[in-house]
Amino acid sequence: MESLDNPLLNDNRNYDFTKESFYIRAEFPIIAEWINAGAKIIDLGCGNGSLLKYLEEKKSVKSEGLEISQSGVDFCLENKLKARRAAIDELQTYANYGNQEFDYAICNVTIQMLMYPEILIQEMKRISRYQIISFPNFAYFENRLELLLFGVMPQK
């Protein structure tokens, strides 16, 4: 069992993906259009790996993901996706990645949840040739309702 002092365990972004299945968001096809077939990508804040799976199927990419939630990482690994647990806004997360190691670094609908987005952006630029960042439209009525009714960030 993990210590209660573990900052990843106590993080409110530590979503539970145990009851999840793969899904396709509206932006997945758009992101796929920007990525070359066979590219090497990293998905920062990959959740349950839905975007990784989508890009592997559509573009035959070599991919890996970083996710703060252990259940998200476990779901990825159970489905043969490469992922590891890490906080994507901490500098030490990127210590083992070389300059321009990836063709694309993707942060899809996650940047608004970070304490230090400048670290994420700085490291995305260092480890990849191209960066893709997206965020939810909080003016969209369904996102506003989810925030109002459930008090959580929109997940899908």
Molecular structure report:
This protein is an alpha/beta fold and 156 residues long. 33% of the residues lie in helices and 18% in strands. It has a five-stranded parallel beta sheet, sandwiched between helices. Strand 1, helix 3 and strand 2 form a beta-alpha-beta unit. The radius of gyration is 15 Å and the shape is globular.
Protein structure class: alpha/beta
Number of strands: 5
- Tell me about the biggest sheet? 5 strands, parallel
Mean pLDDT: 88
H/E series: HHEHEHEEHEH
Shape: globular
Helix content: 25-40%
Q: What's the Cα radius of gyration? A: 15 Å
Q: How are the strands of the biggest sheet laid out side by side?
A: 3-2-1-4-5
Q: Which residue ranges are poorly predicted, with pLDDT under 50 across at least 5 consecutive positions?
A: none
Terminal-residue CA separation: 30 Å
> Which band does the percent of strand residues land in?
15-25%
**Helical stretch tally:** 6
